[in-house]
Amino acid sequence: MLTCTWAPTVFAGPQVVSTNPKGEFPDGQALHSAVLPAVQRIEALGLSHLLIAQRWWGSGVEMEGSSLDCLAMTALFAAHTERIRLVTAIHPGFFHPGAIAKWGTTMDWISGGRWDINVTSGWNLTEFDMYGIDTLEHGQRYARSSEFIDVLRGAWDSPLFSYEGEFYRAEELCLEPRPSRPLTVFQGGQSDDAVAMAAARSDWMFLNGGSLTRIEGIISRVRKACLATGRTVRFAIYAAPLVRRSDAEAWDEIKTRIAAIDRTRAERRRAATGGAEGMWASNEDLSLLDTNEGYAARLIGSPDTVYERLDAYRALGIEMLHFSTGDQLFNETILPELVG
């Protein structure tokens, strides 16, 4: 199973609990000291992918905090890693696809062909307003993202590419240097609009954590949509593992964390993430303990229990585990088998 984690670019916590402190950005040399050893540790663990988020504003309370810029940090990580693939999250609307195609081909070459893109249609409407970006209604955001991917792929695949769409245009766009390999496109979402875009244009879908039944339902919808497009989409699931020597020990710790949930903040998170249809829709407490509903994937328990859970997701068609690397026992007992 391929493995992915968040790049260390966010310094305010994702947990909706009353004890959660607000993080601070390091600056100058402290930034390098904080970030680069963490990335090199991730690569040393053997992970295959690193996801660099675009979160230019976040409260650090109802959602994760603001992150360092996705483009600048991808370039920094490319210079200080050797093997791990770099997946840059990009919100259409904030960037023109032609400009990102040019930037991406540069990243392709300076990283030795290790660059991929995660096209995220966006749901943090306050962030859009803050930067003067037209939020559009949900379906139109996915229409904009679809055009964004069309321009990226067209520029990537054709020596000269022209395009006239509702949101973007290009006239004989020529990328020099040419990219060294085909473009791999990731996306998130699980709404009908997200499913349609994935089936028509994307290579991978990042899924929030959830029950086996919920994840199976999303995968089935995408595969059904792919029957009409003749394409294949691969799937990654986000999880926050909590491995302990016994199931009872792990669930006792989860119960303690649930007891610390600040219910007022939880309701504010639901309101703040209302722009994401179908995501953060669960009312269960596990979904509140981590960004992207990581604990709802239930990689919770003894090593044997968690490995069985992973096998069940693998049987559904999950090919990549996107996870937080903070659980030491998971890293020691299960991760080595995943990365080979």
Q: Can you walk through the features of this model?
A:
With 340 residues, this protein is of the alpha/beta class. It has one domain (2-339): TIM Barrel (Alpha-Beta Barrel), CATH 3.20.20.30. It contains 12 helices and 12 strands. It has an 8-stranded parallel β-barrel, surrounded by 5 helices. Strand 2 (49-52), helix 2 and strand 3 (85-90) form a beta-alpha-beta unit. Helix 5 (138-157) runs parallel beside helix 6. The longest helix is centred in the middle third of the chain and has 20 residues, at 138-157. It is globular and about 60 Å long. The relative contact order is 0.14.
Helix and strand layout, with pairings?
Blueprint: E1 2-6, H1 29-44, E2 49-52, H2 70-79, E3 85-90, H3 97-110, E4 115-119, H4 125-130, H5 138-157, E5 161-164, E6 169-173, E7 185-187, H6 192-201, E8 204-207, H7 212-229, E9 234-239, E10 242-243, H8 247-259, H9 263-272, E11 300-301, H10 303-316, E12 318-323, H11 328-333, H12 335-339
Parallel strand pairs: 1-2, 1-12, 2-3, 3-4, 4-7, 7-8, 8-9, 9-12, 10-11
Antiparallel strand pairs: 5-6
